[in-house]
């Protein structure tokens, strides 16, 4: 059986048991009044009491109606605020009037109201004031305590109508059922408290598991960052070694040949002028081949996209790939043609756009980036703005420093601002006669 359902079953038992007890006591009282009236001994009964009791039929009918009303209100769940206060207040009032109808000979209905409050009021700070109020009513609604100030008709007075053996049996049944109601209430409360303790332990265990998972994730992220940093170092080292090999194999070889040839020319110049000319031709060819090899090595550093397509297509491909990889919305707008730029200009324009997109997504956590490229007289303007977190105090890192170095090579400028997202504006002078207007 589900632990969560056990208290609900116990609550149903309490509701049925309280209904039986209330009807049982009300019928005893009603039957006693009717008996006194039919046997013409009502004066003996009135002599024992200080006020006129209600009609015999009203006691079970009113008590039953009040209890049913209380049960119907208990069926209302998932209420908050003033509605919750009204609900519990109504239960307390109806319970108190039931106790009044029964001459405060039974107050177990208030235990049922406490049980309902404990089960269906969600938070402890909401339960506490209501439970305190109900408990006060429970302790106050005692026959001996109330009868000392107000005139009441005790159940024993009604039981005086019956024979002593019947009276003892009826009173015993009432006491047994009342004790049984109290016993069920105690079991119910133990179940509710146990379930709440289990729930707290479960939540605590889940929090511990979550903290453990977060720690493992943090450690994994640290290891990944270390691995990424190590990969970058290895890539840098590999690139340095490649460049060193290229320089050694191309420029070093060419310079060695040139130096050797010039030394030979210095020796042959006076002795064999014609041979010196031939040697100089050979040196020139070696120099040309060296320049070709150096250009080939430098071109190998350019992005593949620029090698395969033009700058404009390469930028469109870059934007599309970054959008697909990150889901960031990148709006790309250019108002001028990007054809006929030299290789170094294309490389710098491409790298600036690439670096800004990467920084916006990686550091600014942006999900919207606007790229605008336009021409103003002899300047190519690149304006890139994102909706990221921005940066109040900008510390120039490798990316910005590298972009400034690249632009300085073309006598350009770089401006940036991080107060509203991050904005980068690059201006590159156009070399007249090579760039075509749109």
Features:
about 450 residues, alpha+beta, 5-stranded mixed β-sheet, 14 helices, rod-shaped, disordered C terminus
Reconstruct the topology from this structure.
Blueprint: H1 6-38, H2 42-48, H3 58-74, H4 82-101, H5 108-120, H6 124-140, H7 143-147, H8 155-159, H9 164-268, H10 273-299, H11 304-308, H12 311-326, E1 329-334, H13 343-362, E2 368-376, E3 379-386, H14 398-409, E4 413-417, E5 422-429
Parallel strand pairs: 1-2
Antiparallel strand pairs: 2-3, 3-5, 4-5
Helix pairs in contact: 1-2, 1-3, 1-5, 1-9, 3-4, 4-5, 5-6, 5-9, 9-10, 12-13, 13-14
Quick overview of this protein structure:
With 438 residues, the chain is an alpha+beta fold. Helix content is 69%, strand content 8%.
Account of the 3D structure:
The chain is α+β, with helices and mostly antiparallel strands and 438 residues long. It contains 14 helices and five strands. The protein has helices spanning 6-38, 42-48, 58-74, 82-101, 108-120, 124-140, 143-147, 155-159, 164-268, 273-299, 304-308, 311-326, 343-362, 398-409; strands at residues 329-334, 368-376, 379-386, 413-417, 422-429. The chain has a five-stranded mixed beta sheet, covered by helices on one side. Helix 13 (343-362) links the parallel strand 1 and strand 2. Helix 1 (6-38) runs antiparallel to helix 5 (108-120). The longest helix is centred in the middle third of the chain and has 105 residues, at 164-268.
């Amino acid at each position: 059986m589900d632990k969560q359902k056990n208290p609900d079953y116990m609550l149903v038992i309490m509701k049925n048991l309280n209904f039986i007890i209330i009807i049982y006591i009300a019928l005893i009282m009603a039957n006693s009044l009717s008996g006194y009236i039919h046997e013409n001994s009502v004066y003996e009964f009135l002599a024992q009491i200080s006020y006129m009791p209600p009609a015999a039929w009203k006691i079970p009918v009113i008590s039953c109606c009040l209890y049913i009303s209380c049960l119907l209100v208990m069926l209302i769940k998932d209420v908050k605020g003033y509605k919750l206060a009204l609900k519990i207040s109504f239960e307390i009032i109806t319970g108190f009037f039931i106790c009044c109808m029964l001459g405060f000979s039974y107050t177990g209905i208030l235990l049922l109201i406490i049980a309902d409050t404990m089960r269906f009021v969600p938070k402890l700070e909401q339960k506490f004031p209501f439970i305190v109020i109900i408990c006060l009513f429970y302790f106050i609604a005692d026959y001996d305590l109330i009868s000392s100030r107000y005139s009441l008709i005790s159940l024993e007075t009604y039981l005086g109508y019956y024979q002593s053996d019947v009276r003892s049996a009826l009173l015993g049944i009432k006491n047994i059922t009342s004790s049984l109601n109290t016993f069920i209430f105690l079991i119910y409360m133990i179940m509710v408290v146990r379930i709440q303790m289990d729930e707290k332990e479960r939540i605590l265990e889940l929090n511990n598991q979550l903290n453990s998972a977060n720690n493992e994730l943090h450690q994994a992220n640290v290891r990944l960052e270390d691995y990424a940093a190590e990969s970058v170092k290895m890539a840098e080292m590999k690139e340095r070694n490649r460049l060193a090999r290229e320089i050694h194999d191309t420029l070093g070889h060419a310079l060695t040949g040139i130096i050797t040839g010039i030394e030979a020319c210095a020796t042959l110049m006076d002795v064999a002028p014609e041979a010196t000319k031939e040697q100089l031709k050979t040196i020139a060819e070696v120099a040309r081949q060296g320049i070709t090899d150096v250009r080939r090595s430098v071109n190998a550093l350019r992005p593949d996209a620029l090698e395969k397509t033009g700058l404009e297509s390469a930028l469109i491909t870059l934007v599309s790939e970054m959008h697909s990889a990150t889901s960031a919305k990148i709006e790309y707008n250019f108002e001028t043609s990007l054809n006929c730029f030299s290789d170094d200009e294309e490389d710098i324009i491409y790298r600036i756009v690439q670096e800004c997109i990467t920084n916006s997504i990686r550091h600014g956590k942006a999900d919207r980036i606007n790229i605008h490229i336009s021409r103003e007289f002899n300047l190519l303007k690149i304006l890139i703005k994102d909706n990221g977190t921005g940066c109040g105090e900008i510390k120039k890192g490798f990316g910005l420093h590298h972009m400034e170095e690249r632009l300085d090579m073309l006598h350009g400028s770089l401006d940036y601002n991080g107060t509203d997202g991050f904005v980068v504006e690059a201006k590159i002078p156009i070399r007249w006669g090579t760039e075509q207007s749109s």
